[in-house]
Amino acid sequence: MENIGLNATVDDNGEKNENSNGTLTSIVSMNETGLKEKYKKLYEITVTVDEDDENEGRKIKFLFTRPSVASFNRYVKTASKNVMNATAVFIRDNIIEEQVSDLEKECNAYPGLALNMGQKLLSTLGLGDNVNFKRI
C-alpha cells in the first residue's frame, strides 16, 4: 500500500516533499485504501496553475467525496446571489477533511480555483455543458 501525496499549501507550514517534477506535496498519513474505506467514493481533481512565465505548470491536487443532494441544493439556492461564494462553499462541503486547510489556503492564493474545481465537481452530478439539443 502506498501513501497518496496530496498537494501542499502555498505557505511553508506543514510537512512537505518535492517530487521529481518540482511539485510540492504534503503527505497525508492515510494511504489510498484507507481513504477509500473512509470515504467510499472519491474524485481526484488536479488543476494546473500558471502564475506567471517563471512559475508555469504547478499542479494542485485535491480529493473530493461525491456531493450530496443537500450540498447541491445549497449551491443552487445561493448561486444566483453570489456564484463565487456558493461554489467555494460547495467545494468546501465535499473535500476530504484531511485537505480542508490546504484548500482554503490555495483558494486564498488563487481565487479562481474554486470556480474551476466546482464546475468539475458539479459535473459528477450531471450538471455540465455536454448536452445536445435539437428540434425533431
Description:
- With about 140 residues, the protein is an alpha+beta fold.
- It contains five helices and five strands.
- The strands form two sheets. It has a three-stranded antiparallel beta sheet with strand order 1-3-2.
- The longest helix has 12 residues, at about 85-95.
State the shape: globular
What is Rg? Answer: 16 Å
Number of helical runs? 5
Strand tally is 5
Strand composition percent = 15-25%
Query: What is the H/E order?
Result: EEEHEEHHHH
Write out the strand line-up for the largest beta sheet, numbering strands in chain order.
Answer: 1-3-2
- Which stretches of 5+ consecutive residues score pLDDT under 50? 7-18, 20-29
Would you summarize the structure shown here?
With 136 residues, the chain is α+β, with helices and mostly antiparallel strands. The chain has 5 helices and 5 strands.
Write the layout of secondary structure elements.
Layout: E1 3-7, E2 16-18, E3 24-31, H1 32-39, E4 42-49, E5 58-65, H2 69-79, H3 83-94, H4 100-109, H5 113-123
Antiparallel strand pairs: 1-3, 2-3, 4-5
Helix pairs in contact: 2-3, 3-5
Question: Could you name the key traits of this structure?
Answer:
136 residues; alpha+beta; three-stranded antiparallel beta sheet; 5 strands; 24% strand
